[in-house]
Amino acid sequence: MKVEEYILRNDRLLAVLFDPDRQVSDESLRLRAEAADLLFVGGSTADREATGQTVRRLKRMTNKPVVLFPGNPSQFTPEADALLFLTLLTSRNAEYLIGQQIAAARAVRSSHIETIPMGYILVDGGKTSSVQRVTGSSPLPQTDIDTIVDTATAGCLTGKRLVYLEAGSGAAEPVRQEVVQAVREAIDVPLIVGGGIRTPEQMQAAYEAGADIVVIGNHLEQHPEQAVLFSR
Ligand code: 1GP
User: Fold this and answer.
1) Cα separation of 189 and 199, whole Å?
2) Residue located nearest, by CA, to atom 1 of ligand 1
3) What is the pTM assigned to this prediction?
4) pLDDT tens by residue, 96-125
5) Which of 94, 121, 128, 142 has its CA 20 to 30 A from that of 1?
6) Mean pLDDT for the chain?
7) 30: exposed, middle or buried (C-beta count within 10 Å: 0-12, 13-18, 19+)?
């Protein structure tokens, strides 16, 4: 089954994010892979070699979908099951709206990997995120729900088949429930929520507000033994 079809058929999915730049044991990977429904691989600085290595390690452990969530085109590897093809909708820099996508286009097309166009929306999670640092784009304040909703809507109107509300890796405050809810009501594609989620209660709050997929990175990287608590 294609990854997109799997996402459309299921709700309340847990995506665990694996950063290829972090040195971790097989046990750490295994504990997190067992708890997850989807395995996202990506980071702000990793290169193709590190990304490919993480993809291969995960694929040796599990048959679950391994999905690239790349920080830049040089992380692309055709070894994953699918690629989230990102547009940073909150950027006003053409580089992140079309430049990086053009840079990736040739390799992606020739790989025939499953590609899912995704609108990526950075909201303020209470501290400067690596997305903000790397791209120089400002996050939307979580109080400006109208702009967040309009951004998500514009993403769907321009063909994105997933929307990701991102508070930033290690956010002090995850995406608020009222933000998730307002976006959920406005769009009809699957909604991903991530950034700063550290407890099963925060994950449930995101699902209850309408998230289809919750992404957890840092917390489970630091506490892989807790992964089971987040599993369905
Ligand atoms: C980052 O949303 C993801 O892109 C995950 O964030 O590392 O804070 O869980 P955390």
Assistant:
1) 26
2) 169
3) 0.97
4) 999 999 999 999 999 999 999 999 999 999
5) 121
6) 97
7) middle
CATH code 3.20.20.60 for 3-226: no
With a pLDDT cut of 70, the percent of the chain lying above it is 100
Q: Is the dihedral of CA 76, 74, 161, 167 positive or negative?
A: positive
Nearest atom in ligand 1 to the alpha carbon of residue 69 is 4
- Rounded to 5°, the CA angle 137-141-147 comes to 90
Distance 171 CA to ligand 1 centre (A): 8
**Could you tell which of 165, 197, 226 is best to mutate to test the pocket of ligand 1, judged by most ligand atoms within 8 Å of the CB?**
197
Report the separation in Å between the CA atom of 148 and the middle of ligand 1, taken as the mean of its atom positions: 19
Q: What element of type H or E holds 116?
A: strand 114-122
Residue 42: other Cβ atoms inside 10 A: 23
For the cut 90, the answer to whether the pLDDT of residue 55 exceeds it is yes
- What separation in Å is there between the alpha carbon of 144 and the centre of ligand 1? 21
Q: Mean pLDDT across the stretch 193-198?
A: 98
**Per-residue model confidence (pLDDT) at position 232:** 80
State which ligand 1 atom lies nearest to the alpha carbon of 221: 7
Ligand 1 in reach of 171 Cβ (< 6 A) = yes
**Token pair for residue 227?**
């992964």
**82-97 pLDDT tens trace:** 999 999 999 999 999 9
The response to whether residue 184 sits with its C-beta less than 6 Å from ligand 1 reads no
